[in-house]
TrEMBL record:
Domain of life: Bacteria
DUF6089 domain residues: 4-228
Name of the protein this chain belongs to: DUF6089 domain-containing protein
Pfam families hit by this protein: DUF6089
Family annotation (InterPro entries): DUF6089, OMP/PagP_B-barrel
């Protein structure tokens, strides 16, 4: 009985592996920053963002997902609704490379093996790492490089809608927030402890940034045995 059980289990695993489908594609859109410098609008892309995305659809309702996105984060105090920030007049611009991985869940079944229109809202979350240069503001308000870089750990949270637009193409649109555990992205907290006196802003709140854009992925992989080619 033990061997029969193992044989049945192996057959089940093999059939499930054959039923998986993969997606590779691109992300294009914009980004905006929310922190101690610049405006605090939640969805206000002001810099282009682009990257690559990979998905492993484990079922019609969930997928493992990974992405790499490049963008500049920019903040201008003159764009803020806070009169104190406008008077201060700080601005910053820093490039980041974000690597993210996690799970995507669909609200409806999204079986790419079935014919006809398929579309569904979805949510995504996981963990992200954003590489950025370290900077600080001098006492004169000049944005200055520390000539070092750091990784900001974050939690991505995205809401979107995707639809199959052809036999192998899926088009999606999403808005994603990244809550980071760092307060150094905008230079309000220098990375070097020797410049700790130059820190400013709300130390109880860490930095956020947003991605707003579209995804276009190509699907491939062996179909389940009960589907026609």
């Amino acid at each position: 009985m033990r061997y029969i059980f193992l044989m049945l289990l192996s057959t089940f695993i093999i059939n499930k592996a054959e039923a998986q489908i993969y997606e590779v594609g691109v992300f294009a859109g914009g980004s905006n920053f929310i922190g101690d410098v610049g405006a605090t609008d939640y969805i206000s892309p002001n810099q282009p963002a682009f990257g690559a995305i990979v998905k492993w659809n484990r079922s019609p309702r969930h997928s493992f997902r990974a992405s790499v996105i490049f963008t500049d984060l920019k903040g201008l105090d003159v764009k803020s609704d806070d009169p104190r920030r406008k008077q201060r007049g700080y601005e910053f611009n820093t490039s980041i490379i974000e690597v993210s991985a996690g799970m995507e869940f669909t609200f409806l079944d999204f079986d790419l093996h079935k014919s006809g229109f398929k579309g569904t809202p979805y949510i995504y979350s996981g963990i992200s790492l954003a590489n950025h240069d370290n900077n600080y503001f001098t006492s004169a308000g000049q944005f200055t490089s520390e000539n070092t870089s750091s990784w900001a750990v974050g939690i991505p949270m995205a809401l979107g809608y995707k639809a199959k637009i052809s036999h192998h193409l899926v088009l999606g649109a999403e808005i994603g927030a990244r809550y980071t555990f760092s307060d150094e992205l905008d230079g309000s907290v220098p990375d070097s402890v020797d410049r700790e006196a130059l820190s400013f802003g709300n130390t109880n709140n860490t930095d956020w940034y947003m991605f707003t854009g579209i995804t276009l992925t190509y699907t491939f992989g062996r179909r389940p045995c009960y589907c026609n080619f």
